[in-house]
Amino acid sequence: MPFTIAIDGPAASGKGTIARALAARFGFHHLDTGLLYRATGAKGGDPIAAARSLTPEDMARDDLRSAEAGQAASKVAAIPEVRAALVAFQRDFARREPGAVLDGRDIGTVICPDAQLKLFVTASDQVRAARRAAELGADPAEMLAQLRERDARDSQREAAPLKPAADAILLDTSDLAIDKAVAVAVDLVLSARKST
Ligand code: CDP
User: Fold this and answer.
1) How far is the CA of 106 from the centre of ligand 1 (A)?
2) Could you give the angle at which helices 178-194 and 15-26 cross, rounded to 10 degrees?
């Protein structure tokens, strides 16, 4: 049976970096599920039709990482039919051998409730805003306001809100350099593999 790692958390918490590092370390496939919502928002038109007709080209656009694409993603992600259209692709991906790492908002709660390891990665608002501002070359104060708006929308929506699964392990990266955070996550995978 493939080994599935579910990683959730708010914007710029470090979940994507940890997910990529775990996939490389264990030879697993990696899916950044945020890109599905970013591509849906960026496609324009009716978001439900956009989600149902996503193509690999839509996912490869080079403007998906922008702050605007993040805001658009969070708006379309609140629509239940958009989320429903993306479930099967994510679940199929999670079953790929020898294992898969998926990061997003609802992986441990909705997409892969049976994942062998669930992490909920957080960091303080200020740390997250500073990281994302450095990544995008944006103003930290403006970034902080944007992230808070997006987190509030993601946490308060009815459809698959951002929240830790009951059995998720919390990993706060506020005071952890990225290599330390990855090392902690690697140890968690090693012990989860022993016990499954
Ligand atoms: O990288 P960052 O954490 O800023 O954002 P992302 O993971 O690319 O996600 C962009 C937006 O997509 C989020 O703000 C959520 O609204 C939505 N999303 C979601 O609803 N469910 C997921 N599994 C992944 C992303």
Assistant:
1) 9
2) 50
Mean pLDDT by 10 residues, the chain (196 residues): 96 96 98 98 97 96 95 97 98 98 98 98 96 93 95 95 97 94 98 89
Q: Is the whole-model pTM more than 0.85?
A: yes
Q: How many CB atoms lie within 10 A of CB 16?
A: 19
**Sheet harboring 3-8: ordered strands across?**
29-32, 99-104, 3-8, 117-122, 169-172
- 57 Cα: distance to centroid of ligand 1 (angstroms): 19
* Ordered domains of the chain (ranges, CATH): 3-189 (3.40.50.300)
Q: Is the minimum distance from the CB of 90 to ligand 1 under 6 angstroms?
A: no
- Which residue stretches of the chain are H helix? 15-26, 34-43, 47-52, 56-59, 67-76, 80-94, 125-136, 140-156, 178-194
At 178, list the tokens. 């990225």
